[in-house]
Design a protein that fits this description.
The complex is a heterotetramer, with 2 copies of chain A (about 140 residues) and 2 copies of chain B (about 425 residues).
Chain A: H1 8-15, E1 32-33, E2 40-48, E3 53-60, H2 65-77, E4 81-82, H3 83-97, H4 122-140
Helix pairs in contact in A: 1-2, 2-4, 3-4
Chain B: E1 23-26, E2 29-32, E3 34-35, H1 46-59, H2 69-88, E4 97-100, H3 103-113, E5 123-127, H4 136-145, E6 148-152, H5 163-167, E7 173-179, H6 191-200, E8 204-208, H7 220-223, E9 227-231, E10 242-246, H8 248-253, E11 264-267, E12 272-274, H9 288-304, H10 306-325, E13 330-333, E14 342-347, H11 352-361, E15 364-365, E16 367-369, H12 374-380, E17 385-389, H13 396-413
Parallel strand pairs in B: 3-15, 5-6, 5-7, 7-8, 8-9
Antiparallel strand pairs in B: 1-2, 4-10, 9-10, 11-12, 13-14, 14-17, 16-17
The complex binds pyridoxal-5'-phosphate (2 copies).
Chain lengths: ~140, ~425, ~425, ~140
C-alpha cells in the first residue's frame, strides 16, 4: 500500500528497535543531531580492545521510521565485527545512498535493500545515515 | 459541528496556476498534486510567469542610469512596481519601499541600519515565536552592542502574552520586532495594538510580515509600525524578491546597508556621499525582473481582492481544523482566535518526517521540521512538527483527501 | 590597416535571443535594436527564459528542508546549478560557490566576513580603476577598523602600474581586491600574476569578476585567488542572481553574513550555532529559480565555448577600435594590450549624454555616465564618458552602423 | 533629421549659451550636481532686495545639450521677474516634465516646448531640471 520505505521489515524495526537503551549518562557533546529535523542519537560501543572487535552497538534516540530502522539494523549488522571493517562498511553504505556507489555487502543483511528507495529523497538520506555517521565518529574516539 | 461555508472563490483561480494542473507519477499511475506547503512558498500564476518572459523577451536592460529606450522602459516598470507595492500595503510614499531578496534580507537590513540606536544596556524585544530570520539578526546586534535580547512569551494557544509587558514597560526597550503572522501556530498577532503601545514609550517597531502580507489586507499606516518586511515568493511572486517598508522619516536618517553602485551620490577614493532613499538601500544591480513580476503578482492578488482571499482562507482553515481535530491521536499546535491558514500538528507514534513522506507518496505536499523556529520547538518540547498551510487556490476537496490519508496513516502505524 | 578577421560565430546565436529581433518605433518607422550596452547587462537566450517558465510551471518549491517531490526536485536542481557554476569557473568543490544577488552583494559579503582580519594600522589595497562596488565596501571596512585604503594607480593606457607595488611590498597590506576586467577601459588585469605575488606576502586576494567571467574562460584554481565575485545578469542569466567563489579553507573559518533561515544549524533564544558552508552564507530563501536559470545560462555559454566567445569578441572589438579611431575628435580611453569588449570614448564638443540619446534615436543602445567609477573619471578629469560594450551576439554590421551614426553626429554638432 | 530635442533652437542655446560666465569664486558647496552624470552648475543671481525682483541670472557649468539649453533658456525667461513668481514657475516646469502637470506659461517663451519630448526620458529630465532646481535652492538663500 505505501511507499517501499515503509515495508513491513522496516516498520518492525521501527516498532521494536533492537539494541536500544537509555544512554542518559552520555553528555550533550556526545549527542549527534540531524539539523534538518532536530532528531538526535547517542551511541554506545561495547569494544574489545585486545581483539579490535566491536562486540555490540547500542543507541538511544527518537526519530522517524527511517532513522529508527536504519539505526536498529546498523546495530545488528555490526555485532561482533572488527572496527576497521565497520569503518569501511559505513563509508560504503553512505556513498550508496548518495547515489555514488553500489549497494554494499553488509554481511548478507537483506533489510538494507529497503533503503534503496531513499536515493531519490536526498533530504531523507540524512535520516538514514545519521547513526552511521555518529558511529563513525564514535569509533574515531576509541 | 459548526457549519462552515464551503463557498468557493468566485473566479476559478486554480486554472491560473499551471503547476496545479501537474500530475505526479506514483507506481506508474498519475495522481494530482495537492500543494499544502504555501507557508514555505506559494505557486505562481500564469500572468506572473508571462510577465517574466515578457521582460526578457522585449524589455531587458539595466535600470536608472541608462539613456536608451530599453533602459528607460525597464526603469519605468521597476519604479512602477515600487508604486504598486506602496499602494498594496498602504504606504504614504513610494520611496518608503526598498526592494530586497526577501524577508530575511529586509530584517537583516533593518537590524543593521538601526544598530546606532541600540546602546550598551538597552533591550531589544522580540517574541518567543519568531522565525529564525527575526531572531538571529537581533541576537547578533544585541551581542555586538552589548544590549540584551528579551522575549514576549506565548501561551498554550500560541498567542502572545502581552499584558505584563505593557503594564510594566521597561524603558530600556529600544526596538520591538515581532511577527505579524506565526509560521508555526498561524497566530495573527495584534500588531496595531502592539505598535500603538510600544510607540507610547518611544520604542521603534519592526514587523515581520512574511506570513501576513500574502493573506491579509495590510495597511502599514493604520498599523503605524516603523518597518515591515515581506517576501515576494510567499505571495505569487518569483523567488529572489521581497521588500522592506520603512517610514520615510526613518529611512532618511539611516545609513546604507550594502554598498556599491546606485547607493551613493558621489564617490571619492577616500569616502562617499550617500544617495537619496530608497536607492541608498539598493546597492548594485537589483533584481529588476523580480520586482516587476512582484508588481504583477500584486495586481493579480488585488484583482481577486485581499479581503476575499482572507475570508476564503478562513473558511478553508476552519473546515480543516474541524476535520483534523476529529482524528484520534492528532494534536494541533496553535489555537489563536485570530489566525491564518497555517496548521501545525503531530500524530501519536508517527514522526512528522514519516507523515510528510507518506503523504507525498499520495501526492500531498506538506512540510515537516522545525520550521526555522527552533526556540518554539524547544518550548513545546518537540524537535519537529508537521505543517499544512493553505493559499486561496486550495480547495475543500483537497482537505477531504488530506484527512482521509491522515486516517489511513494512523491505521498503518498503529 | 590591420586585417581583422570578420568571421562570425559558427552558430547563428542571434536567433537564440528573442529581444534582438525586437523593432523600435521611430517617427512611425520600425528600426532594428542594436544593443551595445552589454557591460551594464546582457540579453537572455530563449533557453534561459524557458528554464524560468519551466521552473514555475512544473517545479516551484522551496529548497532544502522539504520532504515532498517538488521540494526534492527544486533542491536537486538548485544544487546542480551550484555544481555547474563550480565547473564553469574551475572551483575544486561545489560548496565553494555561494549564491548572491550579484557582484555587489558578493563583494559586500567578502568585505564583511573578512573584517576580523583587518586590524588598526593594516592596509587594504585596491586599484584606482575599481567599480564603486569594489571600492565603497572597503572604504567602509577601512574606516570601521581604522585601517587605511591604498590604490594601485593606472597609466594612460588604462593598465595597472604594478612594478613599484611588488618591488616595495608593504607588509601592512592584508587584503588586495582588484577587478579582473575594467568596466571603463576594458583592461583585463594580469590577475594570476598579481595573485601569485600577493600570496608570496600572505595577502588575501579578492577578485571582482563582473566584467571577466562573462567573456573569458575562468579557472579560479589557476588564478589562485581566494575570492571571486560574479553577476549572473551580465552573462545571460536573470537579474537578482550571482555568486561568490571562496576557497574552502577560507569559507570554513569565516562567520556568516546575513542571518536567518538556513544559515544556522541550531538556534537557541540567546545564541546560535552556524551551519556548514555554503549554507552558512545563504540566509533565508535564496533566489532559487535565478540560480537554476544561471545554471542554464552557463550551459548555454559552455556549449558555444568560452574560448570561441572570447576570440570572436576580440575580433569584433579590434574592428570597432580601428573604425572608431578613424573618427576625428573621437577619443578612446583605454588602450591595454589585453582587453575585453568594452570601449569608452568621448567626442569633441558633444556631451556623452547627447551621444547616447541621439544614438538611441537611431536604435543603438549605449551607455553614458560615470559608469559607477567616479574616481576613474576624476583622474581623467571627466564627469562622464560614452561606452559601447559588445557580447558575442553583436555583429560587424552593427559596428559599421554605429560608426556611420557617429560620423553623422560629429557633423551635426560641428 | 534628429530627435526633436535636438532641434535648431536648442542647438543654438547649446552652442551659444546666454548668461554664461565664469563663477569660479563660488565654492564647492554652492555647486549643484547631477549625480547621474556628474554634470554640475553654479548659479549667480542679480537680485534687487527692495523690489523683490531678480534682475538677471547667470550660470557656469558644462554639460549636455539638454542641460545647457535648458539653463540658457531659464536665464532668459527669468530676467526681471519677481522672486515669488519665479519659484512658482520653477515648480510648474518641473512637474510638467515629470508628466504631473500641464505646460507652464513661461512668459511666452516658446523654446520650452522643445523639452516636451523629454517626458518619455525620465533620466534626461534631470539634465533639463538641474539648473531649475539649483536656482530654486539659491533663491531660498536670498
Ligand atoms: C514568519 C517568517 N519570517 C521570515 C521568513 C523568512 O522569509 P524568507 O526565507 O523569504 O527570507 C519566513 C519564511 O519562512 C517566515 O515564515
Ligand atoms: C567591474 C564591475 N564590478 C561590479 C559591478 C557590479 O555588479 P552588480 O551591479 O551586478 O552587482 C559591475 C557592474 O556594473 C562592474 O562592471
Amino acid at each position: 500500500m505505501y511507499h517501499d520505505l515503509y515495508q513491513e521489515i522496516l516498520m518492525d524495526h521501527y516498532k521494536n528497535p533492537r539494541n536500544k537503551k537509555n544512554l542518559d549518562y552520555l553528555s550533550d557533546q556526545e549527542t549527534h543531531e540531524n539539523s534538518l529535523c532536530g532528531d538526535s542519537v547517542k551511541i554506545e560501543i561495547d569494544y574489545d580492545k585486545k581483539t579490535g572487535m566491536v562486540k555490540s552497538v547500542f543507541f538511544d534516540g527518537r526519530g522517524c521510521a527511517v532513522f529508527t530502522s536504519a539505526t536498529s539494523i546498523m546495530t545488528e549488522v555490526f555485532e561482533n565485527k572488527p572496527v576497521e571493517e565497520i569503518r569501511k562498511k559505513i563509508v560504503e553504505f553512505i556513498s550508496w545512498l548518495r547515489g555514488e556507489g553500489n549497494e554494499p555487502d553488509l554481511y548478507g543483511f537483506e533489510e538494507i535493500k529497503a533503503f534503496e528507495g531513499l536515493i531519490q529523497y536526498p533530504v531523507r538520506i540524512k535520516c538514514a545515515t545519521l547513526s552511521w555517521h555518529a558511529l563513525e565518529k564514535e569509533l574515531g574516539k576509541l | 459541528m459548526k457549519i462552515i461555508e464551503k463557498t468557493q472563490l468566485s473566479t476559478n483561480v486554480r486554472m491560473d496556476f499551471p503547476i496545479l494542473q501537474r500530475k505526479l507519477v506514483r507506481n506508474n499511475d498519475e495522481i494530482p498534486l495537492i500543494y499544502l506547503d504555501n507557508a514555505a512558498t506559494t505557486q505562481k500564476p500564469q500572468v506572473v510567469i508571462n510577465r517574466i518572459a515578457h521582460f526578457y523577451t522585449y524589455q531587458n536592460a539595466n535600470v536608472h542610469r541608462a539613456v536608451h529606450q530599453l533602459g528607460e522602459e525597464a526603469t519605468a516598470d521597476y519604479e512602477n512596481a515600487r508604486r504598486l507595492v506602496q499602494k498594496f500595503i498602504g504606504a504614504a510614499f513610494p520611496e518608503e519601499i526598498v526592494f530586497t531578496r526577501g524577508t530575511t534580507e529586509a530584517l537583516n537590513m533593518t537590524a543593521h541600519v538601526l544598530g546606532q540606536f541600540v546602546k550598551a544596556g538597552d533591550t531589544i524585544l522580540i517574541s518567543a515565536m519568531e522565525h529564525h530570520s527575526n531572531l538571529v539578526p537581533w541576537q547578533i546586534l544585541a551581542e555586538k552592542n552589548k544590549a540584551s535580547l528579551r522575549f514576549i512569551p506565548f501561551d498554550e494557544n500560541g498567542e502572545l502574552i502581552l499584558d505584563d509587558l505593557f503594564n510594566n514597560w521597561d524603558d530600556s526597550i529600544k526596538i520591538l520586532s515581532v511577527t505579524h503572522g506565526s509560521n508555526v501556530f498561524g497566530t495573527i498577532n495584534p500588531i496595531t495594538e502592539i505598535t500603538r503601545k510600544a510607540h507610547e514609550h518611544g520604542c521603534i517597531v519592526v514587523v515581520d510580515g512574511a506570513q501576513s502580507a500574502p493573506h491579509l489586507k495590510i495597511d502599514v499606516q493604520e498599523i503605524g509600525c516603523d518597518f515591515y518586511a515581506v517576501s515576494g515568493h510567499k505571495m505569487c511572486a518569483p523567488t529572489g524578491i521581497g521588500f522592506l517598508y520603512g517610514k520615510k522619516e526613518w529611512l532618511e536618517k539611516l545609513p546604507p546597508y550594502q554598498s556599491g553602485g546606485e547607493m551613493i551620490k558621489s564617490v571619492w577614493l577616500e569616502s562617499s556621499i550617500y544617495n537619496d532613499i530608497p536607492y541608498r538601500f539598493e546597492a548594485g544591480t537589483p533584481n529588476i525582473c523580480g520586482a516587476i513580476a512582484l508588481g504583477e503578482a500584486i495586481q493579480y492578488l488585488s484583482k481577486i481582492g485581499m479581503a476575499k482571499i482572507h475570508e476564503y482562507e478562513r473558511n478553508l482553515t476552519n473546515y480543516a481544523l474541524e476535520k483534523m481535530q476529529g482524528i484520534k491521536g492528532l494534536k494541533i499546535y496553535g489555537n489563536a482566535r485570530n489566525r491564518s491558514s497555517v496548521i501545525s500538528f503531530e500524530m501519536e507514534n508517527i514522526h512528522p518526517h514519516d507523515i510528510a513522506q507518506i503523504l507525498d507518496h499520495q501526492g500531498i505536499a506538506i512540510r515537516a521540521g522545525h520550521h526555522c523556529a527552533q526556540p518554539v520547538m524547544r518550548q513545546l518540547k518537540l524537535s519537529s512538527l508537521a505543517r499544512v498551510s493553505f493559499y486561496f487556490y486550495n480547495q475543500f476537496e483537497e482537505i477531504d483527501y488530506l484527512v482521509k490519508q491522515l486516517y489511513k496513516l494512523r491505521e498503518f502505524f498503529n
